[in-house]
Write a structure and sequence with these properties.
Layout (H helix, E strand, L loop, with lengths): L1 H20 L14 H21 L6 H6 L6 H12 L2 H12 L10 H15 L1 H7 L4 H9 L1 H34 L3 H48 L4 H11 L18 H17 L2 H7 L5 H10 L4 H20 L4 H9 L4 H9 L4 H36 L8 H26 L6 H8 L2 H16 L4 H21 L6 H29 L1
Helix pairs in contact: 1-2, 1-10, 2-10, 2-18, 4-10, 4-13, 4-14, 4-18, 5-9, 5-15, 5-18, 5-20, 6-12, 6-14, 8-9, 8-21, 9-10, 9-18, 9-19, 9-20, 9-21, 10-15, 10-18, 10-19, 11-15, 12-21, 13-18, 17-18, 18-19, 21-22, 21-23, 22-23
Length: 523
């Protein structure tokens, strides 16, 4: 434990050094107004979370303990971890930014319908199957039913989709730190990645679940504080805030348009977003790994079902965005800041927190943003480690199957570090391609992979399809999604379309093979 604490102290010292050595021009919007009190709150949060992570880690050194928590974690802690994992920093900075943007309104909240329905679909469709087969990941489930080659294909899709989406989320958290400290974004990416690696490295999934549960409490408090102060800063309070928002057409909630190019419509929320959320629960090991840590199926169902309350955070942050619209309508931004926000709209909420909120409160909210960002990233690191070592690694290096479990755990920890470096590099790359803001980018990048992966999961449930048919369907799905991307069709439609293409092509191929075989037998 002492060794881990020393590592964190060194990292925090490095953070202070970086804030001096790599500070940006103080005339920029990213200039720091972060007080000593706020730094103390943030440091206490980081040190306290690390200490708790060390204390609660599973003392068992085996693989089951490291990756599944020995199936001994309480459902409510798993549920809070699920919420924390899904509630990335994008919820904190991208949702208010979308509302604040020129054409923004509340239509994004239609997506929360799909977020809820996707959870319910997972509870009643695949969760029971996963527990009955005692698997480590959904790719083990696919392997049991469709063979090794299909499972490896699914693992490849997951690792591509997860690394891309987590790279975006790491970038989002780094932008927050950049606003606070005035550091270069690259330095911020490195700092956050190192914290996530250390927390994942300490005790595997057990540490991640418990620290996520604590971080959920922190970021839900931060969300409420942000909403409270956003309303309190407006003369006339909530009523005046809503009047200003209404004048600026920010209160539009439902969009019944059938135009597939529109991103946030009711039909996208009910259909496209449901598939997206179902995929996040059922085939994304970042999320699925938590659902597999409960004592039994009943506990797991409670954990997944209760995690639906996580959509409340999205609603809270949407109304924070409304508050920002009203506040800066009364207190206009300077021309310099306004130009900076226009080019990078995701900076508006961090800017408000650092420049407008009282000392201490801003520290708590920034700690909440850290909690949201790091809880998602450390979850991804354990999932990617498990998939690459226990899935791909055992096939490439068969000796892993007979190696002592404590040695495999050590290799898995090394994989955590490697994946941390990989995500940091991707986050840096994405900093040049913030097309449409982080909210859109976070959904777009996994779209190419996860649609096909959802289709494969349904085929495994039906025990239908073979490798040739599935890989053919996956290739067609990827090219179709690329065409949809080019045509500007909403990215939420990519998920159901990709899934349906894989399912249809695989079933047709199986039918052709079956008919050909029957004709050969007759002859």
């Amino acid at each position: 434990m002492k060794k881990n604490i020393i590592i964190i102290i060194i990292i925090i010292a490095a953070l202070f050094c970086c804030s001096v050595l790599f500070a940006q021009n103080m005339n920029e919007v990213a200039s720091s107004h972060f007080s000593t009190l706020n730094w103390v709150i943030l440091i206490v949060f980081l040190l306290g979370t690390t200490l708790i992570g060390e204390l609660v880690k599973n003392k068992d050194k085996g693989l089951d303990a490291f990756f599944k928590g020995g199936n001994n974690l309480p459902w409510w802690a798993v549920s809070l971890s699920l919420i924390a994992t899904k509630t990335s920093v994008a919820t904190f900075i991208a949702v208010p930014a979308f509302i604040f943007s020129m054409n923004g309104n509340l239509t994004y909240l239609q997506m929360t319908i799909g977020f809820a329905l996707g959870n319910v679909l997972f509870v009643f469709v695949l969760l029971k199957e996963y527990y009955e087969e005692g698997i480590f990941s959904p790719y083990d489930f696919i392997q049991n039913r469709l063979g090794i080659r299909v499972s490896q294909l699914s693992r490849a899709f997951f690792m591509i989709g997860a690394t891309m989406s987590q790279g975006v989320r790491l970038l989002g958290t780094a932008l927050v730190l950049s606003v606070i400290t005035g550091q270069d974004t690259v330095v911020c990416i490195v700092i956050i990645a190192v914290f996530a690696v250390v927390w994942s490295y300490i005790g595997g999934i057990t540490t991640v679940v418990w620290t996520d549960a604590i971080q959920f409490v922190i970021f839900i408090l931060g969300a409420f504080f942000a909403l409270f102060y956003a309303i309190g800063d407006i003369p006339g309070g909530f009523g005046e805030m809503m009047n200003i928002a209404d004048e600026k057409a920010k209160l539009v909630l439902f969009d019944l348009s059938l135009d597939p190019h529109k991103t946030y419509t009711l039909w996208v929320g009910v259909l496209g977003c449901t598939f997206f959320e179902f995929g996040s629960n059922a085939i994304d090991q970042v999320v699925t790994q938590r659902a597999l840590c409960c004592k039994n199926l009943k506990e797991a169902r409670k954990a997944v079902a209760f995690s639906v309350v996580g959509v409340a955070t999205t609603w809270i942050m949407a109304f924070v965005g409304i508050g920002l619209v009203a506040y800066y309508n009364i207190n206009p931004l300077s021309e310099l800041v306004n130009n900076s926000i226009s080019s990078e709209p995701d900076r508006i909420f961090p800017y408000y927190v650092v420049n407008e909120l009282p000392n201490g409160i801003s520290g708590l909210i920034i700690a909440a943003m850290f909690a949201a960002g790091i809880s998602t990233l450390d979850s991804a690191l354990t999932a990617l480690s498990q998939t690459s070592v226990m899935g791909v690694g055992t096939l490439v290096f068969p000796k892993l199957k007979t190696m002592a479990e404590n040695k495999v755990v050590k290799i898995s920890k090394i994989a955590i570090v490697v994946w941390g470096v990989t995500l940091a590099v991707l986050a840096y790359g994405f900093s040049f391609f913030q097309d449409g803001g982080l909210l859109a980018l976070g959904f777009k990048v996994p779209g190419y992979a996860y649609g096909a992966l959802i289709g494969i999961a349904f085929l495994a449930l039906m025990r239908k399809g073979n490798f040739t048919g599935i890989v053919s369907g996956a290739i067609i799905a990827v090219f179709t999604i690329a065409w949809m991307h080019y045509e500007g069709i909403s990215f939420f439609w990519w998920f159901p379309v990709g899934a349906l293409i894989v399912i249809i092509v695989a079933l047709i191929h199986s039918k052709i093979i079956t008919n050909t075989g029957n004709q050969t037998s007759v002859v």
